[in-house]
Amino acid sequence: MNPFIFLSETVNNEAQSTSFDWQNLFNDIWHWICTQGLKLVLGLIILFILFKLINLLAKTVRRRMETKKSEPTVTMVTYNVIRVGLKLLVFVLFISYIGIDTAGIGAIISSIGIGLSLAVQGSLSNFAGGLVILVMKPFRIGDYISAQGCEGTVEDIHLFYTYVASPDNRVQMIPNGVLANGVIVNVSMKDTRRVDMIFGISYNSSVEKASEVIKKVIFKQNNIFRTPEPLIAVGELAASSINLKVRVWVKKQDYWDVFFKLNDQILKELVENGIQIPFPQLDVHFDQEKK
């Protein structure tokens, strides 16, 4: 057989095979466009519409919460959860609709989620604590609290930290995780507070006279409640003094004003009326041995 004839037939067969492959490829593409392509386009259109509806829903919920004067942080968290969470759900459904297996994607997302949760478990604890604080409301912005060795006025509540301004104007950032799981003393929750004070007088002084002096000072103060009635009583018989306990009720905003005024004025009145204010002292006696 002539080798040139054989080579010519081989080239013609390969050309026909190449032309046939391109035709099949074109047919496959056209078939995909007519079936899966239309499905993809329809899915994208529905996805776009649903995203728009989710944005509208999230904005509506946010406006309603702002109208009802909800906590700003709670409003923003709710808005973002609705906007992002529903979009993620719709996107997963879209992937499943167009025929992509979501089992593998779910496994990958789960693995990533486990790794991230281990890496940021402290931050997640603070985030959960922030949600608890925002929902349970153990305190609000402007309240004076004491917690985790810190005390002061709450300036802001974020999802991860609560900002507290101390009386000397230092900003203390307390992690919400430990804050939500610890003891919180909210001084501002009630409208009234009790001022507790102790005044020590000498054993040589009259308890009745000292009580009358203290009572006169108390009743000169207009911001001290008459009901409940102020209490003046012997609280302790100490080593070098008789300690008189004084308890009065005031509005929460008058607490420190009353506390400092009573300390100053009661001390002056006790001294002017001859009531001795003792200090710790020790009497030493020597017994001389008889020789």
Can you give a write-up of this model?
The protein has 291 residues and is an alpha+beta fold. Helix content is 55%, strand content 18%. It contains seven helices and eight strands. A five-stranded antiparallel sheet has the order 4-3-2-1-5. Strands 6-8-7 form a three-stranded antiparallel sheet, covered by helices on one side. α1 runs antiparallel to α2 and α6 crosses α7. The N and C termini lie far apart (155 Å). The relative contact order is 0.07.
Short description:
The protein has 291 residues and is α+β, with helices and mostly antiparallel strands.
Mean pLDDT: 81
Structural class label? alpha+beta
Q: In percent, how much strand structure appears in the residues?
A: 15-25%
Number of strands: 8
**Main sheet strand line-up:** 4-3-2-1-5
| Oligomeric assembly | single chain
Annotation field: number of helices: 7
Quote the distance from N terminus to C terminus.
155 Å
Order of helices and strands: HHHHEEEEHEEHEEH
Number of domains: 3
Please tell me what the overall shape is: elongated
Low-confidence stretches: none
User: Rg to the nearest angstrom?
Assistant: 40 Å
Q: How would a crystallographer describe the biggest sheet?
A: 5 strands, antiparallel
* CATH fold-level assignment of the largest domain: Helix Hairpins
CATH architecture descriptor of the largest domain: Orthogonal Bundle
